[in-house]
Amino acid sequence: MLDTLRRIVQEVNNAPDIRSALDLMAQRVRDAMGTEVCSIYLRDNNEERYMLMASEGLKREAVGRVSLGTSEGLVGQVGQREEPINLEDAFAHPKFHYLAETGEDPFHAFLGVPVMHHGEVLGVLVVQQRDARRFDQSEEAFLVTISAQLSAVIAHAHASGVLFDQLDTQDLPSIHDGQPGSTGAAIGIGVLLFPETDLSSVPDRDATDISGEIALLDEALVRVRQEIRDLAERAKKSLGPEEQALFDVYLRMLDRHALPAEVVARIRDGQWAQGALRMVVDAHVHNFEMMDDPYLRERAADVRDLGRRVLGQLQSRNRRRIEFPKACILMGEDISAPMLMEMPEENIVGIVTTRGSRNSHMAIVARAMGIPTVVGAQNLPLKKLDGKELIVDGFRGRVIANASAELKSQFEDIIAEEKHLLAGLEKLRDEPAETEDGQRIALQVNTGLMTDIVRSIERGAEGVGLYRTEIPFMVRDRFPSEEEQRLIYREQLSAFAPHWVTMRTLDVGGDKPLSYFPIEEDNPFLGWRGIRVTLDHPEIFIVQVRAMLKAAEGLNNLRIMLPMITTVIEAEEAQHLIHRAWLEVREEGVDVEMPPVGVMIEVPATVYQARALAQRVEFLSVGTNDLTQYMLAVDRNNRQVSDLYNSCHPAVLHALLHVVEQAHQEGKPVSVCGEMAGDPSTALILMAMGFDSLSMNASNLLRVKAAVRQVNMTFLRRLLNEVLAMDNGEVITSYLDLQLTKVGLGDLVRHRKPA
Known about the structure:
By secondary structure, this protein is of the alpha/beta class.
């Protein structure tokens, strides 16, 4: 039976469209179970009915026309109970509802199981038979199993908006989930980006003139290289040196000893230039897409984009002119960084891709440009949305099509409120983050891109609580040299002097891989990452620390922070290497003080060793994103369990309070540099706990400062005691919003939950 199950799932997944998939599903299940009828009823939430969408054994003309209410008949009963119903004689059941149009008169035995996805009933899978009998346990188990296996196919069709096309519901609102690539919200007209040149359509042909084909390739490469250089020059206006390094990666891929060498080899084997290009690009794209490493998979988009550009030059075709409306939402399967830079920046209000991740080159650039972005919206029907009005919800990673007037109005209010609120908060730039009764807290920023500097200073940041040093590593195809790192770090340190700049040492692994330093693991979040990598490679660690120390000469505002610390021994080993690097640069004549060294509290082990660590370092900083993930055993990038990820979970709050108490008993400062620090609701709770500073994205700083200045510590401590007594994270979140709204902070906290 297992082989039968695998075969059915494979066939259904390979069906050309959802209609074919449903028909195939009904046919294969009926045959496998040896029954006379298999039918699939799918729930139409807009009509609150179950529609007969496929059947083998009932009248064909009933498919797409017959439906039942969600509480009607045995189908409705299965959906309501969310469990199988197995009846010897369906006609005798009080909930049986006869449908003459289906021709089900002869069939007595009934077995129905719900089709469920993420806790939601999507439909009901039914088998029927003439003989009055109860289906046995193995048959029931098989139908439950096949329903669970095939639920993803149906969920995809629901999300894609193709399921009820024949019912004329395509203009109803549809919400498509992805991942936040860049926060913010936008409303605009979708513009689908696709290449005119189609590599997959290039045929194989024998080269009649090998030298001539190579010459054509060389000419095309010259033009494409110049095209990339021109784009890089344009990028200087809006991107910093780190982001511009993306274009250097493209040029290296176009180096004669890289991809072009493989194409030339194919040509010498007798293939014409276009066919040789297709073969090489397809091979590299396939290899990248098969990799487990998410960052390396992103390289497939880069190779595909370069292949299209070279093919376009080989074919000497003019590119189609794209009309960009004033408020434009760029859409595509992949949108590479160079493609983005070709677009008119002033027209782009949002970006959506069906592939990619938060670590894609495009997402990095989008964040630098401040464009709300959603990536990985797998179920988005791109071709249907070209030219349609869309809403990009970069806060929650959603794309909304065919929005109702009410929903659109709600997002218009959110966008307007954001602009108005930020404009009104500008006056707080030079004011302290101080409560009404005089309690101050330092508000710092998390940075990583050069473009963060201007935004941070404009909002009055009191230094940098987290500088992500891995970004200069991620945008290159090799480790940056000590001097390259020194120049980057110097710019950060100089911009914020005399305030502290806390630089986290290289934190790769998990969801932050390096293409040139692959880490292949079954469970990367519990594997070789952060300090574990750099302690195993002291040559990388020492070079980075030397660059930091040299960059701090004459400024002395550097703090060094160690990520993913699990044991006291790791902290001591890292401190030893830092001290060694400090002695080295001092011997070289660099006059720099030994910087304070701290550790990140982001795994449960360090929560309970916080005091021991505080005895050995100068400061602690809590990374609430990873701490929440590890305490709750929830991958924050996994949409299937995203509802379980909640930083207001009681266990997380009590852990945070414990860290503060332990650090302060040793007289050491402790800060937060995770997402909780940038949310006004949780930021105030962190302040009540006693955290000395909060570090956040620059866009949230003024909002948090405004919240701090409108409350007093008596109120905050009472609120903290109330939530610490609660045992449900969702209740805590709602309670915080309610209480802060009551004291006039509704405008500051409401942005957390756009429609």
